[in-house]
């Protein structure tokens, strides 16, 4: 399936809808109106209808969405009806906490390789059974284990060089936790997670409202 | 200073501009054109000019922005010409990795309290010197230590109840790492960081482009 010109904000909201729908399914909800789904997701119902309209017709007018169907349709849209193999680069405090975090595997993201440059870490076994490889082995391991997405949790100073190595190894998707803007060719999609940028937004709201 | 109706996306981009400008200052750059600043930030120059126009006149036509001045102006806009005290709730792998992460203090965010419910953790000293308090002491400690922002790194099942406690203690800003939508009154500003939502966006791009 190919879709073009879908706003990134829509894609991000689809993920939120998916998670809310999965929670509803666990609570044995079969059908949900766009109004109720919207309330759970913190958006307005028109937004949900508009976001889904990019991809076709969903739901039954006057009834709502069948939860199990909408889950499967959103998964197909996002490419989540499969697992994705991740490589962690940088197994410090944050990197190892992320590898242990149960939320990745729950959503089909599997840490299948981990890299560091610290000789104290290379060769050590992580709680999930992975042995930490040296970054020099990156290209070989990425190909052997069919890694799809690189996760960077190195210090800022190392992030660009790690990104370059991931791209040379054929990786086209990077999740970057290092607090620096990395430059990549157009074929590669980068998402940044900088915790302090979210805090700046909170600080702004606290400063202006109180 | 009061500003209204500024899009959240603008606020987030101001944070990115600020970080890039701070790196430029470290590299001894005095003045930068909006074109060059835009390239470093991964946006177009018109976007930067539009974002800054919400807050007044910046830069000198044909010359550019004085880096040190623009840093100080963006900090004033965002409310970052001060420090903000954070409380971490949930000192698991992720929570303790975040407390140790140098990037918070670099940007003026100080972990001044940490809470858990695990009797094995309560009373223990963290590497930054903080003693972990029981969540039952939250209201008292939040007031004593003048905490401004709560950071939730508990399991999803505990996040809403922790958010309620933070709000009762007078907290109006929450950074939520638990993979669940928390409901808060309008006076409170929540930012969510769900790593897998960013991965979904990467998965979508990989699925549609390749």
UniProtKB/TrEMBL annotation, chains A, B:
One of its GO terms (cellular component) is cytoplasm. It comes from the Bacteria. It is found in: Cytoplasm. It holds the Pfam family CoA_binding. Residues 16-55 bind DNA. Keywords: Cytoplasm, DNA-binding, NAD, Repressor, Transcription, Transcription regulation. NAD(+) binds at residues 90-95. The keyword DNA-binding applies. Its main location: cytoplasm. GO terms for molecular function: DNA binding; DNA-binding transcription factor activity. SUPFAM superfamilies: NAD(P)-binding Rossmann-fold domains, Winged helix' DNA-binding domain. GO terms for biological process: negative regulation of DNA-templated transcription; response to redox state. Residues 79-181 form the CoA-binding domain. Homodimer. Belongs to the transcriptional regulatory Rex family. Modulates transcription in response to changes in cellular NADH/NAD(+) redox state. HAMAP family: Rex (MF_01131). This is Redox-sensing transcriptional repressor Rex. It comes from Thermodesulforhabdus norvegica. The gene is rex.
């Amino acid at each position: 399936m190919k879709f073009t010109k879908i706003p990134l904000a829509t894609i991000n909201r689809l993920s939120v809808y998916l998670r809310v729908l999965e929670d509803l399914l666990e609570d044995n909800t079969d059908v949900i109106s766009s109004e109720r789904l919207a309330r759970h997701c913190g958006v307005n119902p028109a937004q949900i209808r508009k976001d889904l309209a990019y991809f076709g017709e969903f739901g039954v007018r006057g009834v709502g969405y069948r939860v199990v169907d909408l889950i499967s349709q959103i998964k197909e849209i996002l490419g989540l009806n499969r697992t994705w193999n991740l490589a962690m680069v940088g197994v410090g405090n944050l990197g190892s906490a992320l590898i242990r975090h149960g939320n990745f595997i729950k959503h089909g993201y599997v840490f299948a390789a981990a890299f560091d440059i610290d000789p104290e870490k290379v060769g050590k076994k992580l709680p999930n059974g992975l042995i930490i490889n040296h970054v020099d082995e990156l290209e070989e391991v990425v190909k052997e284990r069919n890694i799809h997405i690189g996760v960077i949790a190195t210090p800022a100073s190392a992030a660009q060089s790690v990104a370059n190595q991931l791209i040379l190894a054929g990786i086209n998707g990077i999740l970057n936790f290092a607090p620096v803007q990395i430059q990549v060719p157009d074929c590669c999609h980068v998402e940044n997670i900088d915790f302090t940028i979210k805090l700046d937004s909170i600080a702004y709201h606290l400063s202006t409202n109180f």
